[in-house]
Structures are given as C-alpha cells and as structure tokens.
Give the backbone structure.
Amino acid sequence: MSEDVPVLASMIADHLNAIRWLLRRSGQADLAAVDLTPQQVALILELIDRDGLTLSELSARLRSNHSTVSGIVDRLEHKGLVHRRADAQDRRFVHIQLDPQVTEYLSGRMPSSRSSLLTGALRRADASQRELILCGLAALRQLLEAKPGSPRAPGAGGHEL
C-alpha cells in the first residue's frame, strides 16, 4: 500500500472500532429484552468492558453530562442491575459495578451472540477470505504484543504494506 504508516494506523483503528461496535451491538438485543432504555444498555455495555468505572469516566465514555449518567445509574440501581461502591482509598470516588447476576448472565449470553455473528460472517466468506482475516489479525496481534524496537513479530510473514 502506498499510504503512510500513520494514515494506515488510523484506518486500521477505524475498522477495529467498527468491528467492536458491531460485536457489542449483537448483544444489545438480549439486554433490550429485559426492558432497558438504549442509554441504560449503553451504560451496561461500558461496564461490561470495564466494570467499576466512576460516574465521571462513564460520562466521558457515553459522551453525556454527569447528571444524566447519574440518573441512568439511579434507575439501573433501583432495578438491582448495578451498585455504587465507594473507593477504598478515596471515599470521594464512587465506582459503578454490575450486579454479579448481571455479569453471570451476560458472560453466558453475550459471547454466544458475538460468536454467532462472527460465525455467520465467516460462513459467507470463502476459504481465501477466512485465511486472510485470520492471518491478518494474527499478524497484527503479534506486532502489537512485540517488544518496542523489534522490527517484526515472529511469524508476521513477508507481506509488506
């Protein structure tokens, strides 16, 4: 490819973000079935990625103001889906955590929804596309996990960008 590396990195990040969004969206139907608003679902999805966020962190991730997010948390807490926990070191900070039953439910359902989405997409791909996807993702992962200063990760192949 003729793109410079920063532009290529931005394009890859955009694709990864879109894929992550699609995989997360596949589990939203399960959450919506338990009578949650889209904002409540979005908050729960953020906590799935990183349980124990503060209201400020959730507000930033959801791109919403603090009072709105606090109201969403209030309603989810009333339903028993999340809990507020004071920070052990600094009681000024409150962390929002998913109820263990929610975590257990989602750990069983969400991966199966994500897996079925991926399975369906891979079934529509031909063998060469599946191989390209797997090899490309494996090479990217190896490069990301490689120590800084390493010219190439082992097994990254001879493909030049």
